[in-house]
Amino acid sequence: MGAHISARVAWHNDGWNGRICGDPGGNTYCVGAQSYPGQHVAEKRSLEWETEVRGRPCRDLDRIPPCCYSHNAFGLDEAPAEAAPPAWFNDGSRTRRWVLPPATVCVWPYEVMYGEDVRSEGRFNYGQRLANAREFFDAIQSDRSLIFYYANYSNPFSEDEAKRYALIGLSRVKAVGEELFYEGCSDAVKEKYGGGFVWQRAITSHYPDQGLRLPYHVYRDRPEVLERIALFPENPRLCKYATRHFEDDDALGLVESFLRTVRELQELGDTTEDWSVRARWLEELISELWRHRGLLPGMPAVLELLSLQDAIPLFKQRALAGKEVETRDALFALVEGKADKVSGLKLDAGEIKSVRRQWKLRTKEEQGLLRDVLPRFALRDDQLLKVLDEGRAQNSITATLDAIAHNPYILSEQYQGNDPDDFIPWGTIDRGMIPSPELGGEALAETDDGRRFRALLVDALRHEESHVFTPADALIATVNRRLSVLPEWKRFAFNDRFLAADEELIREAVEIREEEKRTYLYLREAFEDERLLEEKLRFLVGGPDIALRTPVTEGVWEGFLHDPQSVLARKAAKEYRTAIDKQVEACRRVFVRPIGVLAGEAGTGKTTVIRALIKAIKRGHGVGSSVIALAPTGKAADRIREVVEKDEALQGRVEVATIHSFLAKRGWLNDNLTFKRSGGRVEEGYATYILDESSMLELALTATFFRAVRWPTVQRLILVGDPNQLPPIGRGRLFADIIEFVKEQAPESIATLEHNLRQLVGRLTGGATGIIDLAQCYLHGRDEGPKNEHVTTAAEEMLQRVQLGGDVAPDLRVIYWRDQADLSRVLLEQMASDLAEDVRSRGEEPEEALKDIWWHAHEKNSKPAYFQVLSPYRGEFFGVEEINRVCQEHIRGERPTGTNVLGGVMLFDKVIQIRNRPKSWPIWAWNHNERCMEAIEIFNGQLGFSWPHLFDKQKWKAPFFRLEKLRVAFDRREGYSVGYGKGLGRDADNRWIPEEKVEENLELAYAISIHKAQGSEFERVYVVVPKSKQALLSTELFYTAITRARRHCTLLVEQDVSSLLGMRRLEASRLRRINSSLFTFRPVPEALYTVGGWYEDGRIHQTLADVVVRSKSEVIIANMLYERDIPFRYEQPLFASDGSFYLPDFTITWRGADYYWEHVGMLHREDYRAHWEKKRAWYERFFDKQLIVTEEAGDLSKQGDDVIRRYFT
Length: 1209
Prior knowledge:
Layout: E1 4-9, H1 40-44, H2 47-52, E2 79-83, E3 96-100, E4 104-107, E5 119-120, E6 123-124, H3 126-138, E7 146-151, E8 166-176, H4 187-192, E9 201-205, E10 211-213, H5 223-229, E11 245-246, H6 248-268, H7 275-293, H8 299-305, H9 312-320, H10 324-335, H11 349-360, H12 364-373, H13 381-388, H14 401-406, H15 410-414, H16 426-433, H17 450-463, E12 469-471, H18 472-484, H19 497-501, H20 503-506, E13 510-515, E14 518-523, H21 524-541, H22 554-561, H23 567-571, H24 573-591, E15 595-600, H25 606-621, E16 627-631, H26 634-645, E17 655-658, H27 659-665, E18 688-691, H28 699-707, E19 716-721, H29 734-745, E20 750-753, H30 757-764, H31 770-775, H32 789-804, E21 806-809, E22 812-817, H33 820-841, H34 850-857, E23 867-871, H35 880-892, E24 910-913, E25 923-927, E26 932-936, E27 943-948, E28 965-970, E29 976-981, H36 998-1001, E30 1002-1004, E31 1007-1009, H37 1010-1013, E32 1018-1025, H38 1035-1042, E33 1045-1054, H39 1058-1064, H40 1094-1097, H41 1105-1108, H42 1112-1123, E34 1129-1130, E35 1134-1135, E36 1141-1142, E37 1146-1150, E38 1153-1160, ...
Parallel strand pairs: 1-7, 15-19, 15-20, 16-17, 16-18, 18-19, 22-33, 23-31, 23-32, 32-33, 38-39
Antiparallel strand pairs: 1-11, 2-3, 4-9, 5-6, 7-8, 8-9, 8-10, 12-14, 13-14, 21-22, 24-27, 24-30, 25-26, 25-29, 27-28, 28-29, 34-37, 35-36, 37-38
Helix pairs in contact: 6-7, 8-13, 9-10, 17-18, 21-28, 22-24, 22-25, 27-28, 33-34, 42-44
């Protein structure tokens, strides 16, 4: 069989059917940054025209849409396509047009366009490029090769924190289209550019006779179905560079995964295709691929490693004839000196001698692997090199070669290459261990083999990215679903008894834990990481108070914390004094403890307290006392550095770094950036460690940090953070767990900042407390004793104001929108109004055009932290990509075209750096002060504005200027211009600076994701809150979003207040849905995994009562209702006929009638009693005789019994 290929397509909302999308505006993915080809669709698309011709066949239109290379992948008619010549041809070359047959896409092998072989004296050799492309397409065989269609990250299933390629369908290749050249090229262009060839070539498939298309378009509005049928490649490397060749083994893995999805579609009863026919075709394809794969697909890579490249064609030829095993044996007989020649292979004596010498230099273990084991697996030669290397631990392999020989599944469990997507899938090893019986080879494992089971468990646990452990029954069910669609001879259904039968083997990689008659499984390293943290933290908690060389008195603390210039000191001295007293108390408590935890919500003064603690350390232990402040991200570390450097007393006296750079400097990171578990240098030179943004600490990073420090030499560790913010991207909920542990074991070591200074300042400057008031409705705290009426009362009052919309407070506005057009309109109008208002506040008169208002409001594009739109999503019309497109077009006043845009970025755009460029991989920038090039750090999440490159200072305004490079002025990098693009000049050592591709470093940043915004603050924030897609919405996400605003926040909410009410529910907390066991074993109740549809279910499971209600008193009521089998809903919004609403504690439907049970407390407080009387009157007006009331008292159980007997028997 010829080479199989992947084919990238631009997203199509109606199934790539050869028509314009039925709702073009609803397809925001085709114009995404990761569409195909590149930015082409975004630059050329006319949404107005597409809307006019929506749903029509492309063959009937008066023009050709820019998605023409993709849209006919599964179309049943012909469709036209075109390609315009590059602008740099500049010779009158004309657009080339051609006709696509049915079921045709166009692809181009970009990977082979940029190899070393196509570069000559700093230029590309287009003749070689064309030769490489011809070689690529020649390897595709009609009626034999398979084509797998996929969408890059611009698809509905991909988000910033979980970028995924989406598989679309597959088919058999029918024909490869002709080679294309532009019309009318001059002789000079033909000479220079390989004849002027078009970078697209058609691939026609046999669809629908052979092939299938996943019906994503049918279920666009049914996320629960999409979740079941969405298909992602096990090996993402296959989906790189728009199209790639791959071999039969990889194709097998993909076909098996398609069969799994087809079985799901059959279970769903989908009728878009005859899935039984498709399933049979896939099963036949699997059998066919096995025959072509053979028993030894890894043999060519082994021969490459043995310097027997000349033997590879011979082996492949004989393998196709079914003689691969005897050919392997003959080749190894030659290598081992047991034979002098191999029939059909010409090697001279010197070559044979060299090969044998190299073989003898290998260890017996290496020889055994290369001869008997590795040929069975379709691995690359570079992977084999890493596996056999003595330094294989750099690629995360801790097993010996002997262990790998006995259990090759270890390769799928441990190997991690130097790139994130360079790993060895489980399926690759499994196909080598249990080959098709038709091939007549020996299997190295039975279907129920413990090694196989363990590797499956490890693979499943690795995909549980936030949980530290998973219930064994759920994990085994996942494993069995995966096995159930394999060919019959590979299927098996495991059960929990195998955990006992193979316990010793499994425990080498997976920890097994029994809790309350249920079994839970951990990755071995995750379990060990938690136990390490427990040990070190218990050591710190148990230490004695720290002795000071110089006392730090209360007066000293006040001097560090009190700001006499603050507006609070002048206008609210008493309240400010109270807040400072609390901060002093907090500092004094944690300062003398070996471990201190400083927790506070946004606006409570954590930064001020950090600065005061560092000053106190220098005073109490001497100026030379060593302090290091660390943060999980470069952006957060930058902020600490800024705080420290602004204080003259601390300048140059505190080291600041990211945790990653701290570890790398001490040898705790492998070359592939994974963490070492031993072998790094253990630091003992710092007396105090401060970890900021501790809510972002994930398990593996934190455990490695604790391994890297000799804790008996450390005086104190201080963790600082906001426990209400988003949990980390990674395993665990460390900060929350540490807070709970320290509260219980050493309450003197924790200080919670409760006085909100930002809120107090707001009250003094016009009542601007809306942001903080709303944020406090989304805090994590829960009453452990009697009900605290303050929580519900404050939330009801605040959310009732939010429901009304408009200016809720001077710093908070709520705007409701209906659809895509409405969102774009209200965002742009409100943005223009706000920017103009800010310009006027400076005594200037704003211009009419949004472009000019933006320029002046941002003080000539010098303030990236002034304005920010935030969205929880990347895709959809309310996501980051579409909002950026809309903002770019309206703020820049022009659309991107081929000449004025680079990687989606135009001059003067707001941009964000999307990958870290630390000291180990810096980026070149012009230092305006020193007037020289300098390699500097830029971190993921840093914001800036693009400007003309200094080389183009006089050129960029010219009419035919083509943008090929630009510079960015970043926030917190004043005085530097960072270059992107090509032709960037020379570095400080007079060497040419290599190209810095914009699309690999930058994205538009008019809108960014809430995750990207964590750790940043902005003057004005606009938060988009959709209702139609809520999978990512959580309590922490919303809290984080609104607290990014320093001065004003505008909420852009879809339709009504219901999404905000939903995010306030305790089960909407992402933190509460993470399994962790740091100090306390804390499994998430199973029902909490499915938070959608709770109102419809009308029932809270008994196991959840302790999780989803806000006080112990309400737990008692919830459990009483559950025990008596009385369905109820907790805090379900109750709307009256006039649109007003409240949040009843419990809503109970009984015998067709609704009752509302309110449990009230704190009625001794006049303000709460007044609120309750108002609420009672509301019930009497709208829901007369439906209200049930109990009051906080010692006889709550008796009150509850009385209520239940009266109403619900």
